[in-house]
Amino acid sequence: FWGWRLYLRNPRARLSWHSRILRLPLFGRFVLGLNTARFASTLAILSGAGVPLLRALDAARQTLSNDRLSQSVSEATAKVREGANLAAALRVEKVFPPVLIHLIASGEKTGALPPMLERAALTLSRDIERRAMGMTALLEPLMIVVMGGVVLVIVMAVMLPIIEINQLVT
């Protein structure tokens, strides 16, 4: 445990680990959705309050708990600073969900970026809730099987000595 924590103090190792987490089948999508929903929500609030986009991107980047996503937002921010639009800069990173990129592109074209970011955050949050419900639905039968195994071990621990004593008597 302590070795793992020490390993993750290295920025390169942590970036590699966070990249691997995002590639996991179920958990990776959950982490990606959670982080991008928080990112979109923060960006919507800040841009709706009139904060300049570059500052809002930097502040929203700080809400991300995944270093790979944080690095992608930093690179996208640099591209926006050079004159690219936000949707194109995020699309190049190939990390963010397509729904987020499409809604940002629509918001940039119509000039209504904050409402589109709010819609993206809401959509991503609903997707996270749906995935969480699906995960718990999968875990319930698994927990029943595990609890049945524990009960079986306890019953066998009680019954085996009784059966052995019964065989010694006969």
From TrEMBL:
The protein's UniProt keywords, in alphabetical order, are: Cell inner membrane, Cell membrane, Membrane, Transmembrane, Transmembrane helix
Q: Which GO terms describe its cellular component?
A: plasma membrane
Membrane-spanning ranges:
138-163
Name the InterPro entries on file: GspF/PilC, T2SS_GspF_dom, T2SS_GspF_sf
Domain of life per record: Bacteria
Coiled-coil zones: none
Provide the membrane topology annotation: Multi-pass membrane protein
- Which GO BP terms, alphabetically? protein secretion by the type II secretion system
- Family annotation (Pfam families): T2SSF
User: Which compartment or compartments is the protein found in?
Assistant: Cell inner membrane
Query: Which stretch is the leader sequence?
Result: none
Query: Principal localization?
Result: membrane
Q: Which positions fall inside the Type II secretion system protein GspF domain?
A: 39-161
What does the sequence similarity comment in the record state about its family? Answer: Belongs to the GSP F family.
> Which PANTHER family does the annotation name?
GENERAL SECRETION PATHWAY PROTEIN (PTHR30012), TYPE II SECRETION SYSTEM PROTEIN F-RELATED (PTHR30012:SF0)
* Name of the protein described by the UniProt record: Type II secretion system protein GspF
Question: What is the source species?
Answer: Pseudomonas protegens
The upper taxonomy is: Bacteria, Pseudomonadati, Pseudomonadota, Gammaproteobacteria, Pseudomonadales
